[in-house]
Amino acid sequence: MSSNQPPENSDKTAGNLAPHVHQAMSLQTWLDRVDEAIVRDRQRPTKQRRLIAHILYDHRHLNVEELHRAVRSRDESVGPATVYRTVKLLEKVGLVNVGHFGDGTARYEVAIGDEDHHDHLICTRCGRIVEFENDDIEALQRQVAVGHGYVLTAHRMDLFGICGDCQRKAK
Fold it and tell me: Which of 38, 44, 94, 110 is the most exposed, having the fewest neighbouring CB atoms within 10 Å of its CB?
């Protein structure tokens, strides 16, 4: 996406399980990558790990507890340790990104690559997370890096503030 508008399904409250739409990779491609990473790590791709990966693919900004609840709603046999180990493995191999959005917990989302890059606005009162893209900001970030002699290999931008709903409630 290359507009200055937020991507579809960008209005997320922390823990909201509204589905996310990935533009750059199908679910099957994502699950194949997960299986390959698990095998490379000398582990077995199990039904439980695939379910965890599937739910991660469908939802953004889940912490381990929220992810575990979502997984357990589909398979009660999955324990929190399995969820935690799977997420840490996927983070280690670069298939998920971890974000800290000011609520004291690590939140995870699928790492698709630059074609699905976005930044975040985070409400410090209600925890709402809005994803956005802005080509002008991206260009300025590259310009700043070059101006300081850097070659960017990755970046993220998280902006913290108070959303419009919380501002209206405070009045």
Answer: 44
Render pLDDT for 77-100 as a digit per residue (tens, 0 to 9).
999 999 999 999 998 888 888 877
Which domain, by its residues, includes 113? 11-170
The CATH number given to whatever domain includes residue 138 is 1.10.10.10
What is the DSSP-derived secondary structure letter of residue 82?
H
The pTM (predicted TM-score) of the whole model is 0.62
* 3 inside domain: no
Residue that the structure tokens 């046999």 belong to? 77
| Residue 146 C-beta-side C-alpha neighbours within 13 Å | 6
Between helix 64-72 and helix 47-58 the angle, nearest 10°, is 120
d(CA 111, CA 30): 10
Establish if 24 belongs to a structural domain: yes
In DSSP notation, 92-110 reads HTTSEEEEE-SSSSEEEEE
In a domain, 2, yes or no: no
Number of domains observed in the structure of the chain:
1
CA distances from 9 to 23, 59, 90, 154 (A): 12, 10, 23, 24
